[in-house]
Amino acid sequence: NGVESVLPPEQALRQLKGPVVLVGDGVLLYRSLIEKVLGDNFQLPAACHHQPRAAAAAVLAVGLYRADMDLDAARLTPVYIRPSDAELPRLKKV
What is the pLDDT of residues 60-75, one digit of tens each? Predict the structure, then answer.
């Protein structure tokens, strides 16, 4: 729906539309639930790409390009729902 939120895994998965590429440590933890909810509508990249990095996004983009899928680079921007662990102590002082 385009709005960032924190949801239980199954509820979050049910909101996904179309084919998706999932990355992150939660993907490995919830793989069986992902398969149950999304069926064939998802892709999992190699394990080395599950820590989101700009280079990992570039590798995924190349794969989409090679598959002749349209790709808008502006859609590859990270969205952080909560502050990083490094920022939390500083924010607690404010």
Answer: 778 888 888 776 767 6
Sort residue 24 into left (φ over 0), alpha (ψ -120 to 50) or beta: left
**Nearest-angstrom CA–CA distance, 33 and 17:** 16
Nearest one of 46, 47, 45 to 21, comparing CA atoms:
45
- pTM recorded for the entire structure: 0.57
How far apart CA 27 and CA 41 sit, in angstroms, is 14
Residue 34 burial by CB count (10 A; 0-12/13-18/19+): exposed, middle or buried? buried
Q: Output the six-digit token pair for 92.
A: 């607690």
- Name residue 43's beta-bridge partners: 21
Instruction: Give percent of the chain above pLDDT 90.
Output: 22
The pLDDT, as a whole number, for residue 51 is: 73
Residue 82's identity, in one-letter code, is R
Which whole-number Å values give the CA distances from 65 to 48, 54, 59, 84, 85, in the listed order? Answer: 20, 16, 10, 31, 34
